[in-house]
Design goal:
The complex is a heterodimer of chains A (79) and B (252). Chain A has 2 helices and no strands. Chain B starts with a helix and ends in a 9-residue tail after the last helix. Classes of the chains: A mainly alpha (79), B mainly alpha (252).
């Protein structure tokens, strides 16, 4: 396998695998937030704000994978 | 790479060209700098300067217009800093955190709202300043400097006690943390902005009309959140440096 093909596959794996964990985490967090809102509808604003912030934190883990993928595709140090 | 080169060739819509790794290079002495980043960040700085000058030029007791808006922005930033740093410590750090927030926010939104790509450059293209890893690394390193300064000025050399505070076994991890903090800050911001831009570009490539609009709206939302996160994390890191691990300074 030449280095270009390997890099493309590695990029796909990087973003794909990096999406698994944050996906599970975001699902958990959102589910808990919905449960929290259902229990205490008056706290919705606060819960939503915190949820968005934490979702963005989890999202950034996938984004790290994306950065690696982009480096492999556009600024490959080996090709 | 050949695949990506062909992707760039296929895309003929000038509003969303996929150009990654192309730069408008300036040579200053021995340094090569990315000119397009300088141009856009000067514009962003100019916008911020003009807005703050216009807001403070004619201050009224009852604010209206731009003064009202800027007071709202200031209040927002102050609350942000207060939430992270606490009532007593937050005031000296409002300018720093506020500058970070406003610069990143206006940069991100300028990338999404201003049709930079209509302006032709010899090479590369204008985009949000935060679309370039150098900008975000600079901002993240400034944050690192800020929290080191905060800790050192507060505790002197005792600041370094926090590396061995619970147990010296964690020393390597504590040192590593100082490197991962700016790394994650810069990659998070850079990755999010580039991801937005790429997703929008790919959508425009596939369907040039209307379909990319929701994605663009989502991009506006995430870039605002990213500015908020950067500022929040800067505040949190500074607070951590000031306060120390055990939180033993809480009682007073």
């Amino acid at each position: 396998m030449d280095i270009n093909a390997a890099s493309v596959i590695a990029a796909a794996l990087a973003i794909g695998l990096a999406a698994i964990g944050p996906g599970i985490g975001q699902g958990n967090a959102s589910g808990q937030a919905v449960a929290g809102i259902a229990r205490q509808p008056e706290a919705e604003g606060k819960i939503r704000g915190t949820l968005l912030l934490t979702l963005a934190f989890m999202e950034s883990l996938t984004i790290y994978g994306l950065v690696v993928a982009l480096v492999l595709l556009f600024a490959n140090p080996f090709a | 790479m050949e695949i990506l080169d062909s992707l760039i060739v296929v895309n003929s819509y000038t509003l969303a060209e996929l150009e990654v790794g192309e730069h408008f290079l300036w040579k200053i002495g021995n340094f090569t700098v990315h000119g397009q980043v300088f141009l856009t960040s000067w514009i962003v700085i100019g916008v911020l300067l003009i807005a703050s000058l216009a807001a403070t030029r004619n201050i009224q007791m009852v604010p209206s217009g731009i003064q009202n808006f800027m007071e709202y922005a200031l209040e927002f930033i102050r609350d942000l800093a207060k939430n992270q740093l606490g009532e007593k410590e937050y005031r000296p750090w409002v300018p720093f955190i506020g500058t970070l927030f406003l610069f990143i926010f206006v940069s991100n939104w300028s990338g999404a709202l201003v049709p930079w790509k209509l302006i032709e450059l010899p090479s590369g293209e204008l985009a949000a300043p935060t679309n370039d890893i150098n900008t975000t690394v600079a901002l993240a390193l400034l944050t690192s400097l800020a929290y080191f300064y905060a800790g050192l000025s507060r505790k002197g050399l005792g600041y370094f006690r926090r590396y061995i505070e619970p147990t010296p076994i964690l020393l390597p991890i504590a040192i590593l943390e100082d490197f991962t903090k700016p790394l994650s800050l810069s990659f998070r911001l850079f990755g999010n902005i580039v991801a937005d831009e790429l997703v929008v570009a790919v959508f425009v490539l596939l369907v040039p009309l209307f379909v990319p609009l929701p994605v663009m709206a989502l991009g506006l939302f995430t870039s605002a959140i990213q500015a908020l996160i950067f500022a929040t994390l800067a505040g949190a890191y500074i607070h951590e440096a000031i306060e120390g691990h055990g939180g033993e300074e809480h009682e007073e």
